[in-house]
């Protein structure tokens, strides 16, 4: 199969008639001006060696080089062989808790910052799979559908913050149920949910939801961030003043991470619980190792051809023509007196 890699360069061929028309007009104007200036015999003495044929020769060489250059830039190619690539993986949704409790600074710089950094590192480890992003508080939002656009997935995760969902609280059961709805049909037993949270749950039904989802072929892994000791949740008010999340009574509210809830979800969901306490990249690698055990499914099969380029067959004569044109002078010094203007 033949193709031009960059066919837009063929537009350079339009320069050939344009340059030819300009040169013909210029040459006629030049000849008329010389005839008005002096007769031919006088010009032979005033400008010995000028030749009316030599400029046409140089211009012809330049004009002939343009099509070769255009074809060289367009890069003609012939298909060398055809290859088929099959992509295999699973559907993975990363569920990120963005409730106010994630603002706590019991881990530095904050639970939210640690979770965001870890989740983007996790994406790098899960390349090759379909990835989606779910943000949740007491309600859930599929912020990124299952995709292989990993740059988009990372941008969604890196921008996650509590302000994206106004309703606060944490409902891990709904996060699991909403994630189930986002998986593609036919991906049962080829899907996983990774929940990143501090484990606070205001419903207490998350383990039951995990068990039900696992019964339908979903594996659930949980990542816990934060400490169990009570911690304040700093916020920045609209006027720029620093304050803390407060209770209805006006006192500063505290939050306690609850790893037991996340352990129960992972246990009932057939996965595993991982505390986010050390190296994020090492933890992401450990999760990838567990996810890699899940049976892969074939997502798509793509066929493509590899091509051999032949631009040099056109570049070589173009350079040769230009070199000859450049080496030719504008005067014939040996026969200067004999040339006609």
From TrEMBL:
Residues of the signal peptide: none
SUPFAM superfamilies: vWA-like
Cytoplasm listed as a keyword: no
Gene3D superfamilies named among the record's database cross-references: von Willebrand factor, type A domain (3.40.50.410)
InterPro entries: Aerotolerance_reg_N (IPR024163), UPF0353/GerABKA_families (IPR050768), VWF_A (IPR002035), vWFA_dom_sf (IPR036465)
Keywords: Cell membrane, Membrane, Transmembrane, Transmembrane helix
Residue ranges annotated for the VWFA domain, each copy included: 91-291
Transmembrane segments: 6-27, 59-78, 310-330
Protein name: VWA domain-containing protein
Origin species: Neolewinella lacunae
């Amino acid at each position: 199969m033949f193709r031009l890699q960059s066919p837009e360069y063929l537009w350079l061929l339009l320069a050939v008639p344009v340059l030819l028309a300009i040169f013909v007009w210029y040459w006629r104007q030049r000849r008329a001006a010389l005839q008005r200036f002096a007769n031919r015999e006088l010009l032979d003495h005033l400008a010995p060696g000028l030749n009316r044929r030599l400029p046409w020769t140089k211009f012809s060489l330049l004009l002939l080089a343009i099509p070769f250059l255009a074809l060289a830039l367009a890069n003609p190619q012939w298909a060398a062989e055809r290859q088929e690539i099959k992509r295999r993986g699973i559907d993975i949704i990363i569920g990120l808790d963005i409730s106010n409790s994630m603002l706590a600074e019991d881990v530095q710089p904050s639970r939210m910052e640690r979770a965001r950094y870890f989740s983007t590192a996790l994406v790098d480890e899960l390349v090759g799979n379909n990835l989606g992003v779910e943000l949740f508080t007491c309600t859930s939002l599929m912020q990124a559908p299952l995709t292989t656009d990993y740059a988009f997935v990372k941008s969604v995760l890196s921008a996650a913050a509590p302000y994206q969902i106004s309703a606060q609280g944490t409902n891990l059961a709904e996060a699991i149920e909403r994630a189930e709805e986002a998986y593609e049909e036919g991906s049962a037993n080829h899907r996983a949910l990774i929940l990143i949270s501090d484990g606070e749950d205001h419903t207490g039904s998350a383990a039951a939801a995990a068990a039900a989802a696992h019964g339908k072929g979903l594996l659930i892994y949980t990542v816990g961030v934060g400490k169990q000791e009570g911690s304040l949740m700093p916020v920045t008010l609209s006027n720029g003043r620093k304050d803390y999340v407060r209770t209805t009574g006006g006192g500063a509210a505290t939050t306690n991470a609850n790893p037991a809830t996340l352990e129960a979800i992972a246990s009932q969901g057939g996965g595993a619980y991982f505390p986010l306490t050390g190296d994020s990249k090492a933890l992401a690698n450990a999760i990838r190792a567990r996810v890699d055990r899940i049976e892969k499914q074939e997502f798509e099969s793509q066929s493509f051809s590899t091509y051999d380029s032949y631009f040099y067959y056109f570049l070589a004569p173009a350079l040769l023509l230009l070199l000859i044109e450049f080496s030719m002078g504008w005067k014939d010094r040996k026969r200067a007196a004999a040339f006609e203007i």
